[in-house]
Design a protein that fits this description.
about 140 residues, mainly alpha, two-stranded antiparallel ribbon, 7 helices, about 5% strand, extended
Length: about 140
């Protein structure tokens, strides 16, 4: 959990937070903020705040010195030491280090409770018009062969 919110007694996973927040706008602003290159003298204090707020374990990072990261985006995408998270070779793996916290059935094209909010499949994955386009294009290619 995000430490500043926890100290304020707020739970960022509550439905009220997600359903009322302008998530698209916040996401775009956060994306812009992540690309702003920080002056060398400001990197350590700002990135230390980020590391604290999001409980980032910098001992896992290939480069632990915060001054080496020009912006938040570089810190977010930092390489890890090879021994930190070995990839299992026998089973299916995910390219992320998150956890599955909840899963459930899809009913009436609704995804059940993602971060406390129910979404339609179309809003979650986008429109399904690509299926028909692919089918038509693939059928056309087969007909010409």
């Amino acid at each position: 959990m995000l430490k500043p919110l926890a100290y304020a007694g707020l739970r960022p996973t509550s439905k009220a937070v997600y359903s009322r927040a302008p998530t698209r706008l916040l996401s775009r602003l956060w994306g812009l903020l992540n690309t702003v290159n920080l002056p060398l003298w400001l990197r350590r204090p700002l990135l230390t705040l980020y590391v604290w707020a999001f409980s980032v374990n910098m001992q896992e990072a290939a480069v632990e010195d915060l001054k080496q990261y020009r912006n938040l985006g570089e810190l977010f995408r930092r390489q890890l030491k090879p021994s930190v998270r070995p990839i299992h070779t026998d089973n299916m793996v995910s390219p992320a280090d998150g956890q599955i916290l909840h899963f459930g059935r899809v009913r009436n094209s609704q995804v059940e409770q993602v971060k406390g909010v129910t979404y339609s499949l179309e809003s979650f994955f986008g429109p399904q018009d690509w299926r028909m386009k692919c089918y038509d294009e693939c059928r056309g290619e087969i007909g010409r062969a």
